[in-house]
Amino acid sequence: MTYRELIVLLPCHSLEDFPTHHEGDDAHSLLASWSALWHPALLATAGQAPTWRRVDDAPTDVKDRLIVVPSVCVQRLPSGFAQRVKEEGGVLIRDTSNREEIVSAALAALPPSPELPSPQSPAPSPELAADFLALGYCYLQIELLTRQMRYASNLDETYFKTTAVAAAQAAVAGNHDLAREKLSACFSVLAEERDHYYPVDAFVFDLNFVASTTLGEPLRTELAKPSPTNLLISADLVAQMSAKEPETIAALRDALDAGRASLIGGDQTEDRLPLLSHESILANLREGLNEYERLLGHKPAIYGRWRYGLTPHLPGTLHRLGFKGAYHAGFEDGKTPEAVQFKVRWEGLDGSAIDAVAKSPLDATKPQTFLSFATKLGESMDSDHVATIGLAHWPGQASPWIDDLRRIASYCSALGKWVTLEEYFAKTDHPGQLERFESNRYKSPYLKQAVIRKQDDPITEPIRYWQSQAASTAASTTTALASLVSGKNAGDLAQALTANSPGPRGCLIINPSSFVRRIGVEGIGLGSLPTVERPVYAADEHQAAQHAVVDVPAFGFVHMTPGKAASRDKNTKVLAEDGVLRNEFFEAVINPVTGSLAAIHEYKSRGNRLSQQLALRLPGANQKPGDSYRDPDESAVYSVMAADSMETTIATTTLGEIQTRGRLLDLNGKRLAGFTQTYRLWRGCRVLQVEVEMDPAEEPRSDPWNSYYCCRFAWPDELAELTRTLNETRQPATEKRFESPHYVEISDGKSTTSILTGGLSFHRRHEHRMLDTLLITRGETQRKFRFGIGLDLAHPIHDAISLLTPPVVIPNSPRPTSGASGWLLHLSSRNVIATHVEPLCEDGTVRGFRARLLETAGRPANLAVTAFREIKSANTADFLGNTIAELKIEDGKLRLDMSAHEWVEMVARW
Questions:
Q1: How far apart are CA 736 and CA 401, in angstroms?
Q2: Using CA atoms, how far apart are residues 303 and 574, in angstroms rounded to an integer?
Q3: CB-based contact 510:805 (threshold 8 Å)
């Protein structure tokens, strides 16, 4: 028999309602059933292109007909239809999602025929046959796209189908060149049809995710394909590939050299960027870019990452590192905001911007992606500045339909031009509109991930990071300042300050921070207390241990020597008595029954500013199926505190300390944990320091955001606004769960209360006037924590950094040659901090310094930078060392205008 007609039955009345909503095997079956009929051998024997019929209007004449029925239509076939087809000499293929099986079954029913290849004549190659099948898929999608774009078809059906049959006959006859020529004509007709309603290029990019398990053969297969592809890969994975898969690294280099592949990445390791400092992010990117260059000879021009971790601070950093674009999308847990447009101009918090893809790609492993491809492309054509489709998958795991798209793209761009993202950003127009993603639109999964993966110390890992970061910053800054003072590479600032000094010996205190610090110092080791006069604010002793409060200049020092007489004022009250800590600014009342902080009172106004207690939170009873939703906060159960003792441990005119001990109990009196809570207050300080030690008896449950030990804070005003820190800058805290490693500020419009978190990063707001700062979740081994509570702090970031940065105290040091107090660098705007300082050396001689400055409060700064030596010239630079702009020098002061949240590198020369 020969086929007189090729028919596919569909569950629709016209292509207007073609069922693009199906998923899985049903979607696969629809595409397979349609496109299999375009095999060249079938076209040649039928002498005409395939047609489609409604399944509820099946053909009555079935003799010599090939009828294919996708799985979604099998149940709708008329009873007895299959038997009738068989008896009347037709062929019915049904309920399969495999295109190769459909083709094999259809060809098997054909007897040898002059029109079909014989063993002596060359059959169409599998590659050429696959091109015909791709033509069938392209024809369907163009027809659907035309309707999606609300246009009537303008396709010359007669020419298109006649040419397709002629191409098939040429292929069957072994004339492959003629077959490809006519195939090209068919694809050109389809491209011309699309150009009627969208005459500019649409773009498709293929995104391969790469993991340590996909570095071998699957990835090499992807890299060998002629169509452009993009690899989302971090530098540490490139290093793994270089060590374990030399063939793959060679294939990747070849693909990059040929322009067939593009790198998307930048990070050395995909760390938790929202919980890091600007300096750590920069160091990670620099290390990563160097690793790409070393191993591949190429660096990624497009930034992207698999793991959640984008922050609104990134655009400025990426721009200054030379990136040309970014992929702003999340691929794992967590929520990353998407834009309305596919390609946007991503604006950072500092006003810097970089081109970015800001929509998630389609899942290329699912057949429904390719069934609804025309719908998605049409939507992009309607709404996007640049019509774009992204297809993402792991190497070797894409749906076979992606190969049809690749084949189509090798003939025409009717369904999109395939590009690397590097080419995409270079050749498409800049978006006309900036897209700014505010910090509260990002939802982090870090805590939940850490507990699920059974990582150690999910709470204290960020604390240790910030403590280490503060220590390393202090160490590198003092080393840099030592070099500036000595004029050559030097490591010891104290030695540089006191070299050849004949001055008296005493206690040297160094401030490596870029802001003035009022520091409480213990164990100063002097023969007698220092005289209380500037810069010494207060001094006293407890049990023969001296302590003092000292105002140390920014990037400066103070040298204290013994006073000539006792400095203690007998009329000054001690700071701790009867369960109350008090100084010039406020008093803190400790509850003797619970051991908690009952209240903080400011002298200028009435009412409690903040209360604090320790608690174990446990989720309430599980909701039953059918129950209406209840907020977990409504059913959560909290423990209560019971104090066993309260003791005043230090009571001097300079320092007060009260310690409470007790238990956490459930509502039935069961002991859940023991606690020790120590409250400290220095004279002249607006921060109450609190140290907590827990002894848990009850382990929190596995959900870390609903079961944890915490510090609970409460304030009186339900309308108070909260702010937090992100990458050391001030951001609104409007979400119920958020991260803030430095501080949480509570403002009622008249006053502010700051919780200095000391690296405690995870916080949950409860109702409108309570906040839980998480201390212990499942997997946490640390039992000691430290935080602070500050009232009306002008710049809480300063106090937050100070809490993390112990003072540099050097006993028995000679007085510096420049005097008892001094500074080396000065920033005029307190909302700007220096995150890095290094000497500018040439031929072993220090010629100036380089510094990176960060605006932290979210407001512009007109900054003047002064040094202990006169600055002759200065400029701003990007992170590649290129000069951006020269800076003005007025009266020896460097002038720099900074925008809100800007992070800038400046170079100053003596």
A1: 43
A2: 57
A3: no
Residue type, 23: E
Residues 182-241 have pLDDT tens digits of: 999 999 999 999 999 999 999 999 999 999 999 999 999 999 999 999 999 999 999 999
Give the amino acid at 899. S
**Rounded distance, CA 851 to CA 834, Å?**
7
Q: Cα–Cα distance between 499 and 292 in angstroms, integer?
A: 45
d(CA 517, CA 511): 7
pLDDT score for 118 = 45
Encoded tokens for 115 = 């029109």
Distance CA 478, CA 604 (A): 40
- Topology of domain 203-444, per CATH? 7-stranded beta/alpha barrel (3.20.110)
Whether 646 contacts 675, CB under 8 Å:
no
Residue 339: both structure tokens together: 């834009």
Nearest to 149 by CA among 382, 351, 412, 392: 382
Q: Encoding tokens for residue 849?
A: 């310094």
* CATH code, 824-909: 2.60.40
pLDDT at 120: 38
Q: Give the residue range(s) of CATH 2.70.98.30 domains in the chain.
A: 576-803
Identify residue 493 by its one-letter amino acid code: L
- pLDDT for res 568: 53
Residues of the chain with CATH 2.60.40: 824-909
Confidence at residue 189, expressed as pLDDT on a 0 to 100 scale: 97
Residues 6 or more apart from 422 whose CB is under 8 A from it? 262, 301, 302, 324, 325
Instruction: Give residue 300's pLDDT.
Output: 97
727, 349 Cβ separation under 8 angstroms:
no
| Amino acid (1-letter code) at residue 209 | F
In terms of Cβ atoms closer than 10 Å to its own Cβ (0-12, 13-18, 19+), residue 718 is exposed
DSSP state for residue 335 in the 8-state scheme: B
Comparing CA positions, the residue from 642, 616, 628, 629 lying closest to residue 709 is 616
| 512 neighbors 835 (Cβ within 8 angstroms) | no
Which residue ranges does the chain devote to CATH 3.20.110.20?
203-444
* Per-residue exposure over 464-493, b if at least 16 CB sit within 10 Å of its own CB, e if not: ebbbebbeebbeebbbbbbbbbbbeebeeb
Answer whether the bond into residue 361 is a cis peptide, omega within 30°.
no
Angle 831-832-835 (CA atoms, 0-180°, nearest 5)? 135
pLDDT of residue 843: 83
- pLDDT of the residue at 119: 40
Q: Which residue has the tokens 């989720």?
A: 619
Which CA distances in Å does 37 have to 31, 116, 374, 490, 895? Answer: 11, 15, 20, 79, 74
Q: Note whether 67 and 135 are within 8 A (CB).
A: no
What does the alpha-carbon distance between residue 161 and residue 790 come to, in Å, rounded to a whole number?
Answer: 79
User: Rounded to a whole number, what is the largest CA-CA distance in the chain?
Assistant: 121
Quick one: which H or E segment has residue 893? strand 893-898
**Rounded CA separation 50/660 (Å):** 85
Q: What are phi and psi of 261, to 5 degrees?
A: -130, 155
Q: What is the pLDDT of residue 620?
A: 79
pLDDT less than 70: residues of the chain? 112-123, 565-570, 621-629
Closest CA to 15 of 139, 143, 172, 109: 143
Digit-coded pLDDT (tens) for 829-839: 999 999 999 99
pLDDT of 787 reads 98
CATH topology of domain 576-803: Beta-galactosidase; Chain A, domain 5 (2.70.98)
| Radius of gyration from C-alpha coordinates of the chain | 36
Residue type, 448: K
* Encoded tokens for 778: 């499942």
